[in-house]
Amino acid sequence: MEIYLPIAEISVNWPLLILLGAVVGFVSGLFGIGGGFLMAPVLVFMGIPPTVAVASQASHVVASSTSGVIRYSGQGGVDFRMGGVMALGGALGAIGGVELFRYLRLLGQADLVVSVSYLVFLGAIGLLMLYESLTTILRRVRGEIAPRTERRRPLWLYGLPWKMRFPKSGLYISAIPPLGLGVFAGILSAIMGVGGGFILVPAMLYALRMKASVVVGTSLFQIIITTAITTVLQAGRNQTVDVVLSTLLLLGGVVGAQLGVRYAGRFKADVLRAALGLIVLLVGIQMGLELFVRPSDIFLIAPGVADG
Amino acid sequence: MIQAPPPPPPAFEAPAPERSVDTVQDLRVAAALTNAQVQVDSRFRGASIVLYGAVFNPTDDPTDVVVVVRGPDEPVRLVKKTRNLGVWLNSRPVLFEGAPGFYMTASTRPLSDIAGFGQLRRLGVGVDHLRIDAPEESRTVTRYGVRDVVISRLGEDYLDWRRAVIRLREAAALYNTDPDGVTFVDRGLFRAEVELPAIAPTGEYHAEVWLFRDGEPAGVSNLTLTVAKVGFERDVYEFAHRRPWTYGVLCVLLAAGIGYAASRVLGRR
């Protein structure tokens, strides 16, 4: 049941990889996220070099997001104009991010940056989600009515140049904020191997105040483009994409994702958000913990110049 | 003009009699590998190769056999974690210019009983005597915009770094010392096992079979062993390194295609 991965250069148990892909796909379908942030830590734990794990799972994100976008675009839930602007930023971010990642690897600081990014971003997002969903649940249990949310967008969104019309999102704003969001997601995608959906979705909802019905589909559309570019760049620049690994993961992933989507309807949205917030927070803490725990060996082999 | 065909090869290699007569007093060792070509394919989980050999010992003096297998040399970069304000951070990388990617010794007795420190050091036998390339002066090299410190073999912390390379590689089963890995199956006939882990580097390996008598090397036999990816694994690896951009584009198309197919097949409800 073992298979040798040609790029990662180790043998792994392949049914386990398919299962991992399926579990992450299930979570991703259930919550409408890419799920990359869950996969990288498990792959690293299985002994796959972190750089190969991060680069290979990006193509898992491509596959699960593709099937997601097809589903949402059928329901008119993708703003291709907005997604395109964000993807342009994503491409720039990905190019910068892959170069940054390459430099950090050579510097021997890639692990540190990956750990800190996980701790900061997942920790913050997890806490926010948990807080927001728990207050909603409490209110529902007590039978209170939610206070009217502030519907005004921040004013600075209107003061910026390059205004564009996004009819599907119901917006007429400057192209700079979506572009900037895209750049940010692109950098994250290169460094953490994630799609960045967990950051994009709240930002699009609460900062840009896009129409809720197009948020998830549009973020998935931009994630496809950004992670596709990241995958090509990682393969071209660092030779760290293992096609056997990513195919095994996404075979399980696409099946799991479809199952997850079916089960998603059975739970209340705020309960799902609370569960996701908890998972995100725990993964962030787990990844960040290694910064504070005394390592078992204070010496560590750093990736060499020879292997990328 | 038709050339006469070459004489057929002899049915078996007769032991060269004049040599054994002339050198009847000589100690000799001969060895071979059961498998000189290790193929790495999708079922590769490491390999175990048997090295067998014979000692021609005309006297009754006890002899020792030491088998040393060395993988291809490659540069090693290490970082050291240091604690700053409660957070463990990596130091600047330190570079060794070359260390074997695989190294093992198997012997009939512990190496320190077989020969003296100086002798082992001179021959480079044993992990403690392994040659890890380091220049005499530490310097920095800049590659791709990153400054690496090349460790000096005279520096005070050289030994710590060196021990760390060996310890990390031993933990990964890449370096190995087996003080009774060479077993005599019969008088003069011995065998040893070479255990290659799944992460063993590919390339040319060199095996040396040393024969020691009274702490002095009395003979050596050299063998080579090739570890190479074959079939699908080699094709993928070579493709990913020779045409990396095309490879990346194909990976993405494959992923998108599977995602599309899955949504068509499974999502139809």
From TrEMBL, chain A:
Q: Where in the cell is it found?
A: Cell membrane; Membrane
- GO CC terms on record? plasma membrane
Q: Does the keyword Transmembrane apply?
A: yes
Which terms are listed as keywords in the entry? Cell membrane, Membrane, Transmembrane, Transmembrane helix
Indicate how the chain sits in the lipid bilayer.
Answer: Multi-pass membrane protein
TM annotation in the entry? 12-33, 84-104, 116-134, 181-207, 214-237, 243-264, 271-289
Identify its protein family: Belongs to the 4-toluene sulfonate uptake permease (TSUP) (TC 2.A.102) family.
- The protein's name is Probable membrane transporter protein
Source organism: Brevundimonas subvibrioides
Automatic annotation (TrEMBL), chain B:
Matches recorded under Pfam families: Alph_Pro_TM (PF09608)
Gene source species: Brevundimonas subvibrioides
Query: Which InterPro entries would you find in this protein's record?
Result: CHP02186-rel_TM
The UniProt record lists the keyword Membrane: yes
Query: TM spans, by residue?
Result: 245-266
Keywords for this protein:
Membrane, Transmembrane, Transmembrane helix
The protein's name:
Transmembrane protein
